[in-house]
Amino acid sequence: MAKKTDYKFCFGPWNISEGQDPYGPTVRKPQTFDWKLSQLKAHGFDAMMFHDDDAVPDIDSKSAAQVLKEAKALKKRLDNLGIAAEMVAPRLWFHPSTIDGAYTSNDPKCRAYAIDRSRLSIDIAHELDTDILVLWLAREGSYIRESKDARRCVDLLVTAFDKMLAHDKGIRLAIEPKPNEPMDHAYIPTIGHALAVAQLTRDPKRVGCLIESAHATLAGLDPADEIDFACAFGKLWSLHLNDQNGLKYDQDRPFGCTNLRSAFDQVRSLERNCYGQRGEYVCFDVHPFRTTKEEHWMAHLVNSRSTFLHLLEKARSFDEKSAQKLVADRDYQNLDQMVIEHLLGR
Prior knowledge:
Blueprint: E1 9-11, H1 33-42, E2 47-51, H2 52-55, H3 64-81, E3 84-89, H4 108-127, E4 132-136, E5 141-142, H5 150-167, E6 172-176, E7 185-186, H6 191-198, E8 207-212, H7 213-218, H8 223-232, E9 236-241, H9 260-272, E10 282-284, H10 299-317, H11 320-328, H12 332-344
Parallel strand pairs: 1-2, 1-10, 2-3, 4-6, 6-8, 8-9, 9-10
Antiparallel strand pairs: 5-7
Helix pairs in contact: 3-4, 4-5, 8-9, 9-10
């Protein structure tokens, strides 16, 4: 029997958001970064995710030397608090140079900016003692098909990835696919696409993926199946658990709040693939509902972790022998009911 995983948990500073949406302003006053760090440890989390400009604010206005100096100072603060840095991601989608894409922009100067900033993000990751650079390819797609050559854009992505891999021999690139939003259609919409493009790079062993539950749902896929698929290649290096109510905008709902059975299947998949035994974290990319009061600001994260732990108990107590007898008899109707009653506590 495989050793049971002792899971480690993580979130990002953006997960304590102020409630702004495209149709309305913020509804909660911003909290300081120090407050967010203190809340992380106080509520049983082990690590924090970072965009490059979470780690070093106003990054584009600073020299490389200043960026690394501030990253070193942040690492010292994290060490003093007993907090690890789970990953770093270049936040390319905010910058004016990435209006038409970053690595796949039609403008070579914009592509150069994206690659340079990504290399600087790798340097930040090195200072924070994480070997994972997450690439959410937010604007790598098109609004108008005729505006870009999608075949050429694959080459541009591989060129960018190769330059990052060459920059630091220890860095691993974890591609976080999403089918749409902010783009109409993305060039790397699923885990299958991410793992396929990895094979075109100079070092495929260092190009893997990050699965987000909601992104899989938005692609019309089952998140548990995506987890199993990535694990079959040994390429699931990070994980964003959340929930999604149908094929809408990316909602980042608390884990298990919409589809509890899907959440159970995701935890069960993580268990059978021994996720976490090589140091991987369970990250919750969830946001508070806009109605949330400031005194309840951490509830969506605490509740997501609590749901995960309850479902972990359900996954570990599931009667696998009885389930396999039903499978052998092709009695999927009663297997279905067995899962339902197990989740109902019967």
